């Protein structure tokens, strides 16, 4: 008997040290409180003894049906335990994990209530913070939960809305129903779930298929969850719908590739155009040389024509002299009478020859004159042609310089577009 009493006393002392304890009468008046309870509530003993239990509760709770029901059950001798929100001295919040234990007399009627409690305020604050974060995530993100075999356990409204499913259509289905045929049949899909079953966190941009068969792009994390014993029990996926952004990226990538092809073609065209202009300039320079040479030949022809004029002048002088001699011979033959008749015939022939020579010479003079006029006209045209050729060469050179600048600038454009295209391709979801 003595040993049993001692054991009970030791147990009570241990509880006094380990737990916050307070005692109430059946009307809720505080009869006693140990040091740990006083420390937990922030009261001195004299401040607390004689106060009603309601002084430790919020007004809204004291006035509630739940509070009244608590004391009804306690007065009936019922045991109550759970998590209770109370108020410290000064009004600060206090959360207790507590048990209300009715103390019964020999007749089984309750005479007082002993409350044992542990302060769990910090734990509750952490839980509330975590719950608040989870609620915020649930409001802002799409989430879905799978078991370790890939079966859908739960999905929030955001996920159902993004993927176009009703909850009853998705719960119990396998994750693979959200993927395209090619991916779910591939070794990559098998590896994907093997890594999750090993507890590996996965994140990235994932292509999935909605309930209507359309593609959806999700930026998501797959988070393996362990239980208290460290065993993997489920996978929670948190996702954001980035379909529109990915489609824009794809369109930008295609536009960048098109721009790159156009720029490359433009660059090639400028290279070809530059080559054509350079060859044109070479041909113009050749034409310039030919025209220059032709002009020099015409000048030489004009000079030679001047020489012919001098020869013709000499022939004309000889013809005049011959004609004069023929006239003198005729005069002398007339003086000689019958003896000069033969000489007269010769002089007449000489005069006719001289006249013919003079006529022929005049024709040559006229022809040479025409040739010189034509040569001068040709020379004038050649000079005009030279001017045009020089202007053409200058314009071709300018065009060549412009084409070279275009080529350089198009090269810069190609480089810039190539860099942009590479960047877009890097950002593009694979």
From TrEMBL:
**Where is each PAC domain found?**
80-132, 202-254
Q: Ranges for the Methyl-accepting transducer domain?
A: 253-430
Report the residue ranges that make up the PAS domain in this protein: 4-51, 147-173
> Which portions of this protein are annotated as coiled-coil regions?
none
Q: Which UniProt keywords apply?
A: Transducer
Q: Name one Pfam family in it.
A: MCPsignal
Read off the Gene3D superfamilies from this record: Methyl-accepting chemotaxis protein (1.10.287.950), PAS domain (3.30.450.20)
Q: Which InterPro entries match?
A: Bact_Chemotaxis_MeTrfase, MCPsignal_dom, PAC, PAS, PAS-assoc_C, PAS-like_dom_sf, PAS_4
What superkingdom does the record give? Bacteria
Q: Which SMART domains match?
A: MA (SM00283), PAC (SM00086), PAS (SM00091)
GO CC annotation terms, alphabetical: membrane
Biological processes per GO annotation: chemotaxis; signal transduction
**What protein name does the entry list?**
Methyl-accepting chemotaxis sensory transducer with Pas/Pac sensor
Organism in which the protein naturally occurs? Zymobacter palmae
């Amino acid at each position: 008997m003595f040993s049993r009493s001692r054991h009970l006393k030791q147990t009570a002392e241990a509880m006094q040290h380990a737990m916050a304890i307070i005692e109430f009468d059946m009307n809720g008046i505080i009869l006693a409180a140990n040091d740990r309870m006083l420390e937990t509530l922030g009261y001195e003993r004299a401040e607390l003894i004689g106060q009603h239990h309601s002084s430790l509760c919020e007004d809204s709770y004291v006035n509630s049906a739940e509070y009244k029901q608590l004391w009804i059950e306690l007065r009936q001798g019922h045991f109550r335990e759970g998590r209770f929100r109370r108020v410290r001295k000064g009004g600060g919040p206090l959360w207790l994990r507590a048990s209300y234990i009715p103390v019964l007399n020999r007749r089984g009627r309750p005479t007082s209530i002993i409350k044992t409690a542990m302060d769990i305020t910090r734990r509750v604050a952490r839980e509330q913070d975590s719950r608040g974060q989870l609620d915020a995530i649930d409001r802002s993100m799409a989430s879905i939960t799978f078991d370790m075999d890939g079966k859908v356990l739960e999905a929030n409204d955001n996920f159902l809305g993004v993927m176009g499913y009703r909850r009853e259509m998705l719960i119990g289905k396998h994750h693979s129903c959200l993927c395209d045929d090619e991916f779910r049949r591939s070794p990559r899909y098998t590896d994907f779930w093997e890594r999750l079953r090993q507890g590996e966190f996965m994140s990235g941009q994932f292509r999935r298929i909605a309930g209507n068969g359309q593609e959806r792009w999700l930026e998501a994390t797959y988070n393996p969850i362990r239980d208290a014993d460290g065993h993997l029990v489920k996978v929670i996926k948190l996702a954001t719908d980035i379909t529109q952004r990915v489609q824009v990226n794809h369109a930008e990538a295609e536009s960048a590739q098109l721009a790159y092809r156009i720029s490359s073609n433009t660059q090639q065209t400028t290279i070809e155009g530059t080559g054509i202009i350079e060859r044109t300039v070479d041909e113009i320079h050749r034409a310039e040389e030919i025209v220059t040479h032709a002009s020099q030949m015409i000048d030489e022809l004009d000079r030679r024509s001047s020489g012919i004029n001098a020869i013709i002048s000499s022939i004309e002088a000889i013809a005049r002299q011959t004609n004069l001699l023929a006239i003198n011979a005729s005069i002398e033959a007339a003086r000689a009478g019958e003896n000069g008749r033969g000489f007269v015939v010769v002089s007449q022939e000489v005069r006719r020859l001289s006249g013919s020579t003079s006529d022929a010479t005049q024709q040559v003079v006229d022809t040479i004159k025409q040739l010189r006029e034509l040569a001068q006209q040709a020379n004038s045209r050649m000079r005009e042609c030279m001017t045009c050729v020089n202007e053409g060469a200058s314009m071709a050179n300018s065009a060549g310089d412009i084409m070279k600048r275009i080529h350089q600038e198009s090269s810069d454009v190609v480089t810039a577009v190539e860099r942009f295209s590479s960047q877009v391709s890097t950002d593009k979801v694979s």
